[in-house]
C-alpha cells in the first residue's frame, strides 16, 4: 500500500481491510478478556537433566476465545505489545503465576516451585517494572528467589546503560534473570558478561536440529560451554525426542523443557506434577 496521505486505505485490497477490522475486533476482545479474567495460564515443567526431576515451570498465557477457540499467544501478544495492553496483561500473568506457585507450596510441605515468567521488551522499557514486581511479590507472598524473569536478547542490545540499571534493580530484588530464545538475536558476548544474567535458554531452533545439522550441534555445544564459563545455567527449549535429550546431557546442559517431557498443561495438572515430585 502506498502512503498517499489521507488515502492510505484506498489502495488496500478488501482482504486487508477485513484484516484490519479483524485485528481491531481481536484487540477489543482481548481488552474484555483481560478485564473479565478470561485469560488462563498453562505451565510447562522445567526438568533437571541430571535427575529428570521437575524443578519448576514456565507460565505461558492462554486465551480461550468465546467464538474463535484457543488463540495462540503468538497471535495476541504482538497486539498486546502494540497497544500497550501488555503492561496490565503482563502484570496479571506475573501475579497469577506467583499466586499459583504459592498455592501449590501451601498444599505441600516445601517451598514453591521455581516459576519462570516471560517479560516483554515493552514491559522492560517501563521504569516502574521493578516496583510492579515488588508489589506482586508482596501481594502473593512469593519468595523472590523462586521467581525467574525471562526476556529476549533485545534487552541486551539496545540502550545499554538504562537497560543495565533496570536489570540491576530487578536482580536486587533477589530473583533470577534468564535470556530467552538465546542464540537467535544479536547480543554481544561483552554485554552478556556485563549484565547480571543467571540463565541462558537455548532456542528451540537449535535443539530441533541437534544431531541433524552439524553446525547447530556445534552451536548448542558452544552455548552450553559459554553458559558454564560465565557461571550461568543453561536450559534447552523444545526437546521432543530422546536423541536430543541424550545429546544435551552429553554436552552437560543443566535443564530442559519440551514436549518430550510435557506440553504446557493447565494449573491442576501442573500442580499434581509438582506435588508428586514427578520424574517425567
Ligand atoms: P517462549 O517463551 O519461547 O515459550 C516457548 C514456546 O514453545 C511455548 O509456546 C511452548 O508451548 C512451546 N514449546 C515448548 N516445548 C515445545 C516443544 O517441545 N516443541 C514445540 N514445537 N514447541 C514447544 P506458546 O505457549 O505458544 O508461547 C509462544 C510464545 O508466546 C512464547 O515463546 C513467548 O514468547 C510468548 N508468550 C507466552 N506467554 C507469554 C506471556 O505471559 N507474556 C509474554 N510477554 N509472552 C508470552
Ligand atoms: Ca520463554
Ligand atoms: Ca523461548
Ligand atoms: Ca520462542
UniProtKB/TrEMBL annotation:
Domain EAL: 23-278
Lineage: superkingdom: Bacteria
Identification of the protein by name: EAL domain-containing protein
Provenance organism: Actinoplanes sichuanensis
Entire-sequence positions represented here: 636 to 915 of 915
Amino acid at each position: 500500500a502506498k502512503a498517499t496521505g489521507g488515502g492510505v486505505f484506498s489502495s488496500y485490497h478488501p482482504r486487508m481491510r477485513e484484516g484490519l477490522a479483524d485485528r481491531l475486533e481481536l484487540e477489543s476482545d482481548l481488552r474484555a478478556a483481560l478485564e473479565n479474567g478470561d485469560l488462563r495460564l498453562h505451565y510447562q515443567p522445567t526438568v533437571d537433566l541430571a535427575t529428570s526431576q521437575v524443578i519448576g515451570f514456565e507460565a505461558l498465557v492462554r486465551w480461550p476465545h468465546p467464538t474463535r477457540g484457543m488463540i495462540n499467544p503468538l497471535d495476541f501478544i504482538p497486539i498486546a505489545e502494540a497497544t500497550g495492553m501488555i503492561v496490565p496483561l503482563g502484570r496479571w500473568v506475573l501475579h497469577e503465576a506467583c499466586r499459583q506457585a504459592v498455592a501449590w507450596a501451601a498444599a505441600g510441605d516445601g517451598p514453591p516451585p521455581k516459576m519462570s515468567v516471560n517479560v516483554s521488551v515493552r514491559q522492560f522499557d517501563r521504569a516502574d517494572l521493578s516496583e510492579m514486581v515488588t508489589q506482586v511479590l508482596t501481594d502473593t507472598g512469593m519468595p523472590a528467589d523462586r521467581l525467574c524473569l525471562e526476556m529476549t536478547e533485545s534487552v541486551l542490545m539496545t540502550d545499554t546503560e538504562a537497560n543495565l540499571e533496570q536489570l540491576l534493580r530487578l536482580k536486587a530484588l533477589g530473583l533470577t534473570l534468564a535470556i530467552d530464545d538465546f542464540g537467535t538475536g544479536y547480543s554481544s558476548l561483552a554485554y552478556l558478561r556485563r549484565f547480571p544474567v543467571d540463565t541462558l535458554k537455548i532456542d528451540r531452533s537449535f535443539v530441533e536440529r541437534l544431531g541433524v545439522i552439524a553446525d547447530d550441534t556445534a552451536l548448542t555445544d558452544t552455548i552450553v560451554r559459554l553458559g558454564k564459563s560465565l557461571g550461568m545455567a543453561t536450559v534447552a527449549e523444545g526437546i521432543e525426542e530422546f536423541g536430543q535429550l541424550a545429546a544435551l546431557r552429553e554436552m552437560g546442559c543443566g535443564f530442559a523443557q519440551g514436549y518430550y517431557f510435557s506440553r504446557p498443561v493447565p494449573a491442576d495438572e501442573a500442580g499434581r506434577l509438582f506435588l508428586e515430585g514427578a520424574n517425567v
